[in-house]
Amino acid sequence: ANLAEAMSTVENFMREEKDEGEKMRIWILIVGFFMGVALFSSFRWVLWVGLSIILGSCQLLYSVYQLWRILVNVGLIATLKLYKSLATLFKFKSQNSARRKREGLFRSSSFVEFQTISKAHDNDGGEAWRSDNSDFPQAELLRTTISRLEQARKHGRFQDLQFLLSGLLKRNHLGIHDKELYGHSESGTKTIIESFQHEIELSLTALLHTPCLTFEEKSAFFRKERQSLGQSALCLSGGGAITMYHIGVVKGLIEAKLYDRIKVISGTSGGAIIAGMLACRNEEELIRDVINERVSTDFKHDGSQLRQR
């Protein structure tokens, strides 16, 4: 009973202390509120100055951000403009270089001179393209084919050589005649393609001169492969006075000893006139009568030349 009374007394004391603490906190809040109101009334200009500084700082930061965005945009636009200008300049220089190269080729007076100028221009990058086979996936297959042809030819296995050539002598084998392969270099195409064609020529020559095959076997083989491969034709386009350039093409073919291989010649408009002239003359007559470096396109009414250039 004494313990219960003691506990009850302690609880009452703590309750009274708690009530006193609550009252004290309430008084402190009331006093603090009135003191804040008094301070605000007396020093409200300090608050306004502080708020103004804060707002001004925010506006300054926002202005700096906007200025940074403007500078970044201006920098990007200027960079793009500069890149475009440089690209245009380099393209213009490249076009000028290509035009000068073409002019040099056009001024060549013989096929040998044309080849010399072409090889000189290929040193600017064409020769590297010729030896680089990264953009020509058939290069490895061509290299293997060259090796097989060479082994059969050197070891005298002419039956195997005939079999290999029968599958190779056709137009655009492995895409080696695609026009994309003849627009990067003035003096030729990929070195691996030229090596392949050279090995084909050596193999055909070996078959032609070998005593291991009879004349009938050789004749049957070459007749069959010629029919499969077909023949090259010279097609001359029209174009008025521009058709006079066909004479230069014929001159180049004669100098390269390729003209006598052409069995078919066709032409359109002015090209047909040139084709008729070619069909009526042999190489000697063409060189003497037609292929004239001083030929002119100006004629009198009677057909004679007005002046020579």
Instruction: Calculate the terminal CA-CA distance, rounded to whole Å.
Output: 146 Å
Rounded mean pLDDT is 79
Helix content, binned percent: 55-70%
Q: From the alpha carbons, calculate the radius of gyration and give it in angstroms.
A: 47 Å
Indicate the overall shape. elongated
- The helix/strand series, from N terminus to C terminus, equals HHHHHHHEHEHH
Number of helices: 10
Number of strands: 2
Uncertain regions spanning at least 5 consecutive residues: 305-309
User: Which structural class is indicated by helix and strand composition?
Assistant: mainly alpha
Relative strand content: under 5%
GO molecular function, one term: triacylglycerol lipase activity
InterPro entries: Acyl_Trfase/lysoPLipase, NTE, PNPLA_dom, Triacylglycerol_lipase_N
Keywords: Hydrolase, Lipid degradation, Lipid metabolism, Membrane, Transmembrane, Transmembrane helix
Protein name: PNPLA domain-containing protein
Descriptors:
two-stranded parallel sheet, single chain, mainly alpha, 69% helix, 309 residues
Structure, explained:
The protein is 69% helix and 3% strand. With 309 residues, it is mainly α. Among the domains are: 124-223, no CATH class; 231-302, no CATH class. Helix 4 packs antiparallel against helix 5 (158-168). It is elongated. The N and C termini lie far apart (146 Å). Mean pLDDT is 79; it is low at 305-309.
